Amino acid sequence: MTLDPQSTYVHLGEDGAATPLSAAGFWDMPAADAARFGGGWTITEFTFSDDWSNWERHPAGDEFVYLLAGAADLWLEQNGALRIVALQGSGAVLVPRGTWHTARIKAPSRMLFVTRGEGTEHRPD
User: Fold this and answer.
1) Mean of pLDDT values over 110-125
2) pTM for the whole structure
């Protein structure tokens, strides 16, 4: 099966099953429907031309952020301090569980995320 990672996400379940999910409406899914994807990991891909408009954190697990192309600074709040991780061309960072993070886009970018999304929180930038 061939997938376009920008229009089809993949959920890797606790039982080892991989389930394709339509990106359309995924983030607006009712909580009852989203609960079935609480366990396991979700793989998503996004393109960015602007800075992220918010901060986020994932209390259920670390997040793998992989820059496929472009340039971005990933900002992480750790131990009361701001840590900036510069990524350019290709590179990855592990965002520790529960760490607030956002991104400043230096050049149009494509990023792949592997996230344990249950309980994800957002706050304005």
Assistant:
1) 92
2) 0.90
